[in-house]
Amino acid sequence: MKKITTVVAVILSIMFIAGVAGAKDWKKVRFGVEGAYPPFSFTTPEGKLDGFDIDIAKALGKAMGVEIDLVAQDWDGIIPALLAKKYDAIIASMSITEDRKKKVAFTNKYYQTPAKFVCKKGAIKEFSKDAIKGKAVGVQRATIHDKYLTDNYGKDVNIKRYGTQDEAYLDMTAGRLDMLLADSVALSDGFLKKPEGQGFQFIGPDLTDEKWFGVGAGIACRKGDTDLVKQLNAAIDKIRADGTYKKIQDKYFDFNVYGE
Questions:
Q1: Burial class (CB in 10 A: 0-12, 13-18, 19+), 134
Q2: Please, which residues have CB within 8 angstroms of residue 93's CB and are 6 or more apart in sequence?
Q3: Which of 27, 208, 214, 244 is 20 to 30 Å from 14 at the Cα level?
Q4: Separation between Cα atoms, residue 199 and residue 175, nearest integer Å
C-alpha cells in the first residue's frame, strides 16, 4: 500500500511540475488584427491601426498587466498566421463558430451583432429568395457571411467575393453589385453613414443563426495556450466590470454592442 501511495504521489508531483513548467509567463501578447474592417479595425491615413477591436486589445493588455504588439494581417491568412506563431491571439471581429473551434481556442465573446443585407434604395421592395434571384451579391471572402450566403443562396445569386470589406464597398458604389452581406454594424458605420452609402439601405431580417453566425465575436488563440485564454477571459470580465468596456463602446456606438 505504501509503495502504491508513493508511486501516486510521485506521479502527481510530476504532473504538477509539468503543468507549472507548461504555463507561459505572458509578459507580452502579440495580437493579430485586420486593419480593414471599420469601425472595428481600420488603418488611419497616417498608417496607424485604430478602431473598436484595437482599443479593446489595448484595454485587455492593460488589464492583464502585459505589453501588447499589434500585427496587421490580411483576413484570408489570419488563422494560418496564428498557428504559425506570427502572433499569439487574434482580435479581429472573429465569430465563435464550431468550424473555427476545430482549429483554434476561443475566449468568451467580447461583442455580438447581427448580419444584414444592403441594397440600393428602392431596388428591392421586399426581401425574399425570389426577389434576389440572379442578383450580384458581394461578401468578404472566407467569412461567416460568405459561408451563410453560399449555403443558403449559392444557387440563386451571383456571389462576388472580396479580400476586404472596403473592396466590396467600392464595387457597390460603382454599380457592380446589387447587394452586400456583412455585419450590420460594419455596414452601418463603414458604408451607410458615409457619403458614398447615402443611396443604400438595409433589407431583410437580422441574421443570427448560430449554425453560421456563432455566439458572438471572440479572441482566437492556439489550442495549447489555455492559460492565455483564461487570462483574456478574466481581462474581458474586468474591463466590463470597471467601466472600461462601456467607455470604448460609447466611443464607437450608440447602443449595447455586447448583446445579451
A1: exposed
A2: 34, 37, 40, 41, 53, 111, 183, 186, 217
A3: 27
A4: 11
Do 26-112+215-252 and 115-213 agree at the fold level? yes
Report whether 93 contacts 189 (CB < 8 A): no
Whether 143 contacts 92, CB under 8 Å: no
CATH code, 26-112+215-252: 3.40.190.10
pLDDT tens figures, 66-122: 999 999 999 999 999 999 999 999 999 999 999 999 999 999 999 999 999 999 999
Q: For 90, which DSSP code?
A: E
Q: Which residues contact 223 (CB under 8 A, 6 or more apart)?
A: 104, 105
- Domain boundaries along the sequence of the chain: 26-112+215-252, 115-213
Q: Tell me which CATH homologous superfamily contains domain 115-213.
A: Periplasmic binding protein-like II (3.40.190.10)
The Cα diameter of the chain in Å comes to: 83
CA distance 105 to 165: 25
Distance CA 140, CA 202 (A): 17
